[in-house]
Amino acid sequence: MRRTPTWWRRAEVPAVNGHGTARAVAGFYVALAGGRLLGPDLLGQLRRGRGVEPELVLGDEREWGLGVVVDPDGYGMGGLGGSFGWWSEAGGYAMAFLTGHIGDHSRGDRLEAAVREVLGLPPV
């Protein structure tokens, strides 16, 4: 089994080298939404849209908050390869999908659609 070099885990590369499991990423969004990581004012600033700007990795345009994409359903972040973490304000749930393979977001989108169907929520 090949191990990730420790220098990569110790590096500080914003928006690139987060390390964790899908459960941990979802837990991060639960803690964030629950006010355990940021005070109410800063959390409100994070969730407030600041305008539509290009998403330079995925090549489309998104509404941005402070370091997260925001939309009427909630907020979170996706990345190259298909991984993402998300908090659904409308559904009151956190969702995370992490992959070790390069791909698009279609697999994670299908999983979230299934979760929303079970919860009786409309698709996003």
From TrEMBL:
InterPro entries: Beta-lactam-related, Beta-lactam/transpept-like, Beta-lactamase/esterase. It comes from the Bacteria. Residues 7-115 form the Beta-lactamase-related domain. Pfam families: Beta-lactamase. PANTHER family: BETA-LACTAMASE-RELATED, BETA-LACTAMASE-RELATED DOMAIN-CONTAINING PROTEIN. This is Beta-lactamase-related domain-containing protein. It comes from Fodinibacter luteus.
